[in-house]
Amino acid sequence: MIVATTIRAVRARRQELDRLGRRVALVPTMGALHEGHLSLVREAARRADEVWVSIFVNPTQFGPNEDFDRYPRQLERDRELLEAEGVALLFAPTTKEMYPKPPSVLLDVPQLTAGLCGAHRPGHFRGVALVVVKLFNILRPEVAVFGAKDYQQATVIKRLVEELDLPVEVVVAPTVREADGLAMSSRNAYLHGPDRQAAAILQAALRAAAAALVAGERRGQVLEGIVAAHVASEPAARLQYAAAVHPDTLEPLETVGDRVVLAVAAFVGGVRLIDNLVVEVP
Amino acid sequence: MIVATTIRAVRARRQELDRLGRRVALVPTMGALHEGHLSLVREAARRADEVWVSIFVNPTQFGPNEDFDRYPRQLERDRELLEAEGVALLFAPTTKEMYPKPPSVLLDVPQLTAGLCGAHRPGHFRGVALVVVKLFNILRPEVAVFGAKDYQQATVIKRLVEELDLPVEVVVAPTVREADGLAMSSRNAYLHGPDRQAAAILQAALRAAAAALVAGERRGQVLEGIVAAHVASEPAARLQYAAAVHPDTLEPLETVGDRVVLAVAAFVGGVRLIDNLVVEVP
Predict the structure, then answer these.
(1) Nearest CA to CA, how far is B214 from chain A (Å)?
(2) Gap between the Cα atoms of B91 and B5, Å rounded
(3) Does the structural domain B2-173 have CATH classification 1.10.287.70?
(4) How close A156 gets to chain B, by Cα (Å)?
(5) B101 vs A contacts (CB less than 8 Å)
(6) How many CB pairs under 8 A join A and B?
(7) In Å, how far are A12, B35, B144 from B186, measured between CA atoms?
(8) Out of B7, B133, B163, whose CB is closest to A103?
(9) Active site residue B37
(10) Candidates 3.30.1300.10, 3.30.565.10, 1.20.1440.120, 3.40.190.10; CATH matching A186-277
(11) Which ipTM was obtained for this model?
(12) What is the pLDDT along chain B (282 residues), one digit of tens a residue?
């Protein structure tokens, strides 16, 4: 596995692959890799000649009071995991390499980032959009694989690719879960003891709303209320939002049609967790 | 010369060139080509194996009360001019091809677009930024050549390329002028009779300020006043702005250092014209 830390090095390698006609599938990550990331790597391997992974804890997507400083970093372990998966190249730039100057470009999809996590993390998706477009332009992958857990992020990236005509195919791979349903996340490392058990309430709450939907409940607000009530039933959890939104526009649905995204964000033991379910109405 | 009207066709051609290792220099235009555009084409020819030109009157960079509908369109004549210059490919997409849906992505460099033309044409540079990034992603040129007449535009594009890590070298080529100093522009076609002669006042006004600068005047506001007074001396002209700004930040300069951009916008006979001079202080 090649470990590249500079844009220049990775561009040189990309040009070699261009000449060889070899296709690259990228998995962009912030490191602290878990089984969810590795499932994205395996999905990427099915779709191109080489898998490339980026590890970059992107400062521009963290708010001033968020966990940028304490976000888990374990590059050596990540490197070993990726090597074992047969990843061809790891791009692990410094902040200075990615942002030699404070960025002045504003990139956003306001219609998609006004609600859900965007409403609670101002600037977050601008940071995501900027770093993902930078990574696409630096690494020029033919395919990029993202996790379904970050549904709003994946929707924003698909829109950017579509409207900016970025020459990359975006693949969204299913969320990988622990045995009790908790969506895998690097931030789960912050959870200890009873908080870890309480965290399963997010997925349980979404499943309860999905069951009501399948049983005939079509009112968006009622479905949101079911999610909220379930989260409230867990004393260690504090709801940030519960939402029933359109899968493409992310707009709240008064009445659910044939597809809905049920999404939730909650704090458990001070750790902010998110999860979602895409439900096709029978 | 290949004439491509679809993204699919031009991407296929670009992939062929990738395999051949041939480099492309792009000249993005809105058509109605004049000697200024052709000088960009010749500059492009010196910098790559093939010159590609795009002709697209981009609706997203026109305000609701601007001249999108009457902007000059003469594709057949443009095609002949480009053929004669040895251009390898003309990309002339429809609006529907470039914008199958109304765009929702917001791309801007607010620090660079707040003043000068940006202050008088809200949304203009967002439209420019969007279409240029789209064209770069569709055509993937190694080099792109822009005219110095649109100084603010060139500055915005260079910043986008730098911060988004777009793999393209931006070249800014000198403004081509008529015998009386008028900067060549497709909009000059709107000028008739005495208005055409009056239009030379923009360049004359900038030269007067540059002469004062060389003679020792360093106060930005005084230099702006010289430009404004000259434009006011021409009854057919109405000043929109006169500015003395930093060449990189485009911020107004209280005191001019070693470099300054003197920029002017004025209406002559109802036609909005712009011009600028970059002056190195001796």
Answers:
(1) 33
(2) 6
(3) no
(4) 9
(5) 163
(6) 73
(7) 40, 10, 20
(8) B163
(9) yes
(10) 3.30.1300.10
(11) 0.96
(12) 999 999 999 999 999 998 888 999 999 999 999 999 999 999 999 999 999 999 999 999 999 999 999 999 999 999 999 999 999 999 999 999 999 999 999 999 999 999 999 999 999 999 999 999 999 999 999 999 999 999 999 999 999 999 999 999 999 999 999 999 999 999 999 999 999 999 999 999 999 999 999 999 999 999 999 999 999 999 999 999 999 999 999 999 999 999 999 999 999 999 999 999 999 997
